[in-house]
């Protein structure tokens, strides 16, 4: 089921809906409001599509899912959301910090850079033999938080995956690569394999 976000949506009602789900996918989208995490100093004009209602609703839903032991997959904004919920922080703008080549919107349906995963990690499992992913983000995880840990990185050191038991966040968009390479369906298979 798709969960809505907006000023008229009651987070409590969403939590009731999530109680009937076995897993959650937190999808891509605009930036998580920096007011939600420490160390967010930077240029606010660099933010894209901050949506406080979406933040409120997704924080409630994902926290509830995590507390209930439900499997959670975070994609792009979703990995960032997982990190912030776990007490982590984000890089407010990659280009401002000297990381180039991560905002490749015109090439969003093709692999553009390498990702290396820690052997034996869930990230390595879902990547399998895939080494190249797409990249459509100007923010990234700086600190994964208290219980999540980084398990995949791009060649320039940007965190590309974080995980803990039952939790996985990936910075790329596997759903935009699956039509040309079905191996990119692996993160979605992972989220439902329980």
SSE blueprint:
Layout: H1 11-18, E1 23-26, H2 52-67, E2 71-75, H3 77-85, E3 89-91, E4 113-117, H4 122-127, E5 132-133, E6 140-143, E7 149-154, E8 159-164, E9 167-170, H5 186-192
Parallel strand pairs: 1-2, 2-9
Antiparallel strand pairs: 3-6, 4-5, 4-7, 7-8, 8-9
Could you describe the 3D structure shown?
The protein is an alpha+beta fold and 194 residues long. It has five helices and nine strands; from the N terminus they run αβαβαββαβββββα. It has helices spanning 11-18, 52-67, 77-85, 122-127, 186-192; strands at residues 23-26, 71-75, 89-91, 113-117, 132-133, 140-143, 149-154, 159-164, 167-170. Strands 1-2-9-8-7-4-5 form a seven-stranded mixed sheet, sandwiched between helices. Helix 1 packs parallel to helix 2 (52-67). 37% of the residues are buried.
Question: What's this entry about, in short?
Answer:
The chain is built from five helices and nine strands, in the order αβαβαββαβββββα. It has helices at 11-18, 52-67, 77-85, 122-127, 186-192, and strands spanning 23-26, 71-75, 89-91, 113-117, 132-133, 140-143, 149-154, 159-164, 167-170.
Q: Would you report the number of β strands?
A: 9
Can you write the helix and strand succession as a string? Answer: HEHEHEEHEEEEEH
Structural class: alpha+beta
Rg measurement, Å: 16 Å
Mean residue pLDDT:
92
C-alpha geometry: globular
Descriptive labels:
about 190 residues, alpha+beta, 5 helices, globular
């Amino acid at each position: 089921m798709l969960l809505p976000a907006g000023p008229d949506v009651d987070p409590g009602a969403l939590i009731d809906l999530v109680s009937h789900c076995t897993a959650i996918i937190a999808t891509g989208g605009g930036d998580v409001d920096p007011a939600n995490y420490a160390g967010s100093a930077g240029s606010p004009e660099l933010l894209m599509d901050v949506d406080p209602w979406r933040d409120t609703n997704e924080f409630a839903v994902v926290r509830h899912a995590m507390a209930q032991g439900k499997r959670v997959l975070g994609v792009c904004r979703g990995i960032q959301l997982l990190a912030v919920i776990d007490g982590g922080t984000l890089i407010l703008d990659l280009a401002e910090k000297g990381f180039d080549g991560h905002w490749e919107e015109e090439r969003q349906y093709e692999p553009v850079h390498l990702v290396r995963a820690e052997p034996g990690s869930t990230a390595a499992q879902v990547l399998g033999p895939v080494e190249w992913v797409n990249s459509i983000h100007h923010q990234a995880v700086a600190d994964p938080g208290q219980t999540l840990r980084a398990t995949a990185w791009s060649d320039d050191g940007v965190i590309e995956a974080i995980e803990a038991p039952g939790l996985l966040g990936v910075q790329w968009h596997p759903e935009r690569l699956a039509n040309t390479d079905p191996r990119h369906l692996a993160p979605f298979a992972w989220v439902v394999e329980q």
